[in-house]
Design goal:
Elements (H helix, E strand, L loop, with lengths): L2 H33 L7 H10 L5 H11 L2 H17 L3 H25 L21 H17 L6 H24 L5 H43 L1 H8 L2
Helix pairs in contact: 1-8, 3-7, 4-5, 4-6, 5-6, 5-8, 6-7, 6-8, 7-8
Length: 242
């Protein structure tokens, strides 16, 4: 058994179990939202508390954080990271970041239309939004883009303190963006929870597929490289001198 297959055997069960738990949570949460039961019954109370406790310090901060987590900001981040990875010829991870980021946007669009949940009352909103509410696009997008960027780049940091600090910043950013959406009155709390759960499940799926395909892609690239070398004049001349 090769080292790759050993690693796959050892990590597959926990990953599958985590994926099943996330899928089950998303299913239950979506059912609660559609039926206005379970966790969804707490949405008005939590959102109302957030509206009542707004102040002149938190409101501009929430606006800024929310803007940093919008689609444009996450797209720019993903493009910059992909360009940097391509610059160092890391095409596999650049592809991983690109596919994961693009896929999350498509998932949000489909999920919003399937569930069809309306946003909180217009009177409570501090931002203009015209799309449907469930799941939160900001929460899903930041979780996926920041999450996959962190997974790809943090291991490249040499110092453990730097890795821990970067991971903490990534978690705090994703969390504060989600909270800001509730504070601004444009999402229910369960919209944010769904965004995080969907983002986690999508990243997990992308990583499983990536680790399954990577050895095969590299093997195919090696075979193609050998064939090109054999077809080159240098390869032909070296064979003729033997």
């Amino acid at each position: 058994m090769t080292p790759i297959s050993r690693r796959t055997v050892l990590t597959a069960p926990p990953l599958v179990a985590l994926g099943v738990l996330l899928a089950a949570f998303i299913a239950v949460l979506t059912s609660n939202v559609l039926a206005s039961s379970g966790l969804a019954t707490m949405d008005p109370e939590v959102s109302g508390w957030a509206v009542e406790n707004r102040n002149g310090v938190l409101t501009p901060a929430a606006r800024t954080i929310s803007n940093c987590g919008d689609t444009l900001s996450m797209t720019i981040l993903a493009v910059i990271v992909c360009a940097a990875l391509l610059h160092v010829r890391d095409r596999l991870h650049a592809g991983l970041v690109a596919v994961t980021a693009l896929g999350s946007g498509l998932i949000v669009v489909i999920a919003k239309r399937l569930v069809g949940r309306e946003r909180p009352p217009v009177a409570d909103r501090l931002a203009v939004e015209h799309s449907l509410s469930y799941p939160s696009g900001h929460s899903t997008g930041t979780f996926v883009v920041v999450g996959i960027v962190a997974i790809v780049l943090i291991p490249k940091l040499r110092q453990p303190v730097a890795r821990a600090g970067a991971a903490l910043l990534a978690v705090l950013f994703v969390a504060t963006v989600g909270v800001s959406r509730v504070y601004l009155g444009v999402h229910w709390p369960t919209d944010v929870l769904a965004g995080w759960a969907i983002g986690a499940l999508w990243i997990l799926l992308c990583l499983v597929v990536f680790h399954y395909l990577t050895p095969r892609v590299r093997a195919a690239a090696t075979v193609d490289s050998c064939r090109e070398q054999n077809r080159s004049p240098t390869g032909s001349s070296s064979r003729s001198t033997r």
